[in-house]
Design goal:
The chain has 332 residues and is α/β, with parallel strands linked by helices. Helix content is 31%, strand content 24%. It contains 11 helices and 12 strands. The strands form 2 sheets. It has an 8-stranded mixed β-sheet, sandwiched between helices. The protein has a 4-stranded antiparallel β-sheet with strand order 2-1-4-5, covered by helices on one side. The two termini are 38 Å apart. The relative contact order is 0.14. The chain binds adenosine-5'-diphosphate and magnesium ion. The site of adenosine-5'-diphosphate (ADP) has 15 residues, from strand 1, strand 2 and helix 1.
């Protein structure tokens, strides 16, 4: 077994909002090994981006973390001071966000923005980055942008959507050494470009020996790109397995629903096949948060959230159908 890079344990994140609290993350457990490519799938609103923002320590001020730990290379990052945090970021935890237009500042050239990112990623170590321009050029080159020299002087608005997404990838790879988080990186791109961008991310991560977290609502993309997949539902990881296993033999009724509603090998939304919607986080169901939508729910499901346990050689599921010696009631 290779070394663990990231270990999120029992993470709870709440948002203070007008008139109450949204209890979004409900005890998330999630880990990534060094060099591993991990997928994170689940419907919109289930807490994928929130989990990653907690890891990068970029949650908004109205968020609180009442419980949980996040270890990066054994260090609890929720306990780091700002200097230690800058050092950690300097080691290269970077994120490609869902919407490339929001990640790029329209009033600065690509070159100016890359310059900042490279400076910032040197952390508080104070070391001068001598060859910033070369690092910038090679990042643009690696992201397969045409004419990197000219790209440095371009403004985001001068580029197409696909190019802007590549620029975001260049931003991320200019610094990523340990972990690249790609949060629905291809959502706004058309299908042919989606494939290219994803292949590019995969190649670059492999070349650098970095780890990848690919967040996607396309099960097809997760299948092509990752080695292991987590399925998230309403603030919990409800299933985890090697990618091939998960697709061959999904255990959780939610995962089964997702797979059933996906046209084979293609992308697209998957929620249509499961009636109902994610619960209100202000007043979520007390037990398994999927119980109100689950065709197999029975008494224990409404009492407490089932823990994520090993049911089959590294295949983990959080579901009472598979715990405490329960029979598989799906076939009952
Ligand atoms: N800044 C915020 N303020 C209040 N609630 C938020 C905020 N960000 C996220 N949330 C809540 O957390 C839920 C999960 O959001 P998010 O992590 O973005 O989901 P996903 O990335 O899986 O689509 C949202 O449905 C919303 O209720
Ligand atoms: Mg998101």
């Amino acid at each position: 077994m290779s070394e663990t890079l990231l270990d999120i344990k029992n993470l709870h994140v709440w948002f203070k909002v007008y008139g109450g609290v949204l209890k979004v993350l409900n005890g998330v457990n999630f880990n990534v090994k060094i060099g591993e490519k991990v997928g994170l799938v689940g419907e919109a609103g289930c807490g994928k981006t929130t989990t990653m923002k907690a890891l990068l320590r970029v949650l908004p001020n109205l968020a609180l973390i009442p419980e949980g730990d996040i270890f990066v290379r054994g260090k609890n990052i929720l306990k780091l001071n700002s200097r230690e945090l800058a050092d950690l970021r300097g080691r290269g935890l970077s994120m490609i966000f869902q919407d490339p237009t929001s990640a790029l500042n329209p009033v600065f050239t690509i070159g100016q923005q890359l310059d900042d990112i490279i400076k910032y990623s040197a952390g508080s170590s104070g070391q001068k980055v001598a060859n910033k321009k070369n690092i910038a050029l090679s990042a643009l080159h690696e992201a397969r942008l045409p004419d990197p020299e000219r790209m440095l002087d371009s403004y985001p608005i001068q580029l197409s959507g696909g190019m802007r997404q590549r620029v975001c990838i260049a931003f991320a790879i200019a610094t990523a050494r340990d972990l690249l988080i790609a949060d629905e990186p291809t959502t706004n791109l058309d299908v042919t470009i989606q494939d290219q961008v994803l292949r590019l991310i995969k190649d670059l991560v492999e070349k650098k020996g970095a780890s990848l977290i690919l967040i996607t609502h396309s099960l097809g993309l997760a299948r092509e790109t990752t080695e292991r997949v987590y399925v998230m539902y309403a603030g919990n990881m409800i299933e985890m397995a090697a990618t091939s296993l998960l697709f061959k033999k999904p255990f959780h009724p939610y995962t089964q629903g997702l797979l059933a509603s996906v046209p084979r090998l293609s992308g697209g939304g998957f929620a249509e096949g499961i009636p109902g919607r994610i619960p209100n986080y202000r007043n979520p169901p007390p037990g398994c948060r999927f119980a109100p939508r689950c065709p197999y729910a029975f008494a224990p499901c409404t009492k407490a959230m089932p823990p994520l346990i090993d049911v089959d050689d590294g295949h983990q599921v959080a579901c009472y159908l598979y715990q405490n010696g329960q029979e598989d009631r799906r076939n009952a």
